[in-house]
Design brief:
The complex is a heterodimer.
Chain A: H1 5-16, H2 20-39, H3 45-61, H4 72-90, H5 102-105, H6 124-136, H7 140-151, H8 156-163, H9 167-188
Chain B: H1 6-9, H2 13-17, H3 23-35, H4 37-50, H5 65-74, H6 80-90, H7 114-141, H8 145-148, H9 158-176
Helix pairs in contact in B: 3-4
The chains are: A mainly alpha, B mainly alpha.
Amino acid sequence: MEPRPAEDASLVQETLAGNQASFQLLVERYQDRLFALVRHYTKDPALVEDIVQEAFLKAFRRLASFQHESSFYTWIYRITVNTVLDVLKRRGRSPITAVEDPEIAGSPSAPDPRVMAPDARLQREEVARITQECLAELPEIFRTVLVLREFEDMAYQDIADLLGISIGTVESRLFRARARFKEKLLQRHPEFGEGI
Amino acid sequence: MATMDCSDARPLVPSYLDGELTEAQAGPLRKHLLACQPCRAGAQAQKNLKRWFAPSEPVAVPRDFSARVARLAFSGAAGVDEAAAGREDHGRRGSLAAPAAAWRVAAPRSTETPVLQFVLRLTVAAAVLALLASVAIQGLRRPSSAELRADDRPTMTLDQALERLDRLERADERRSGSAPSLPR
């Protein structure tokens, strides 16, 4: 469902006035996209559900502070991404070390291997499985920009706003994230290498 | 339209493929890619990579999810971190969250950290105990009104006191015999 800021604003006001049904409508409106977003971080359906629920409850508690400077969708999205990252951090997943930070590490010096597009014979589920396996091995900062850009089709500016970073940082993270993804893909499946 | 060389073109390719360039930037790049086979091959490789991020099957959302979340929200469901602590106990297949039924219900509040809440509650309890102890100790040490009285006679009214003074005065006069009385 596409975001509808005007209707969202009304639903937010009604929720703040104590209308439970309005909040339920807000949840219904964005639950599919948030489930899809969180699934890029964990394969456990129960955990996906719990994280999305947690994000909505956080949003509810902070609803009075929602300033309408961004759309409700951007706002709930930001809360969900932060919730995912918090949860993964609590669970010790993919710690971000200084050497992995693109701002510190600079540009990669490794040769640029090329990959083929997914073979047409591969089922969509198989492509998704391989991609998720490679994504799971990336540090969170790289995985997040890739998920937001490639799966959620977000513009650089929106990613920057959501993560609180500059557009230049988004570009550099994406650059390194793609390089790392490519490395993982070719490590796991060298048959998809092109000319190597 | 301005021409572009490879060193200018290559850094722009990712943004071009992501649809982030203005037409003023994209035009010269397109022209360069049409003319330069190595850059075109590089751009094609980046497009290939992007095809690995094809949309996957939609995720099944539980039918009652929105109703449950709204109900939890309006029942004042426990804070996220509290719930997370509870979840560790309930351990839904090792997942983060406990089942909704296991969420503790509490009044909405601004502080969300359970440790902070515990410390706050402890501080309030300690303050109340200290106040009660202080009052009790002061009560023990403070002299009672009876102890503070200058004599042990029962209190008397003003009339009774004046009458008593008169009596004392008359007694003194009787004892002294000639002493003049004070004017009344």
